[in-house]
Design brief:
Elements (H helix, E strand, L loop, with lengths): L6 H13 L3 E7 L6 E10 L5 E5 L4 H8 L2 E7 L4 H4 L5 E10 L7 H10 L2 H7 L3 E13 L6 E5 L5
Antiparallel strand pairs: 1-2, 1-4, 2-3, 3-6, 4-5, 5-6, 6-7
């Protein structure tokens, strides 16, 4: 059994995995009836575990977040499965999503960080609202035998 990673090591590994991926799967609850809703968003993972992404204000997931801000976000390296399925890494971030309005002191910094990830992400942030996910828990699964590593952040604010 692999040795469990501490919170700082989990964050380092999570950020490294996130740097290799353009997008992730955002899970929300339908505002209208509570059904799970899953969508793909371009994102940036900050060193502290905060997820940044942009979304059209009228998108289904934006409406869902406004109604129920608790979300789950998945990042993985599924492209390795065909070559070496034992190297399949997954990262799940559970937390609370919120729009970051233009008058928020974090807005400009977050916008720069998200836009710096790549040109595609920069294109989309110019067309939408900025959001962040404050982590409550980060779960990192390294390969098939690498264990399940959990970093608890307490209650998301």
């Amino acid at each position: 059994m692999p040795e469990l990673l501490d919170r700082e090591a989990i964050l380092r590994e999570a950020v490294e995995l996130a740097r290799t991926q353009h997008g992730g799967a955002l899970a929300t609850m339908h505002a209208e009836d509570g059904t799970p809703y899953l969508t793909f968003v371009l994102f940036h993972l900050r060193d502290d575990g905060t997820v940044l992404f942009a979304s059209a204000a009228r998108s289904q997931h934006a409406r869902n977040i406004a109604a129920t801000p608790e979300v789950s976000f998945l990042v993985d390296n599924r492209e390795v499965i065909r070559k070496d399925w034992t190297a399949f890494d997954r990262l799940v971030i559970e937390g609370r999503a919120a729009r970051v309005p233009a008058d928020d002191q974090r807005h400009e910094l977050y916008l720069r960080e998200l836009g710096a990830k790549d040109r595609l992400t920069a294109h989309f942030i110019s067309r939408g609202e900025l959001y962040c996910i404050i982590p409550r828990r980060i779960v990192l699964m390294k390969g098939i035998d690498g264990g399940r590593h959990v970093a608890d952040f307490g209650g998301a604010e």
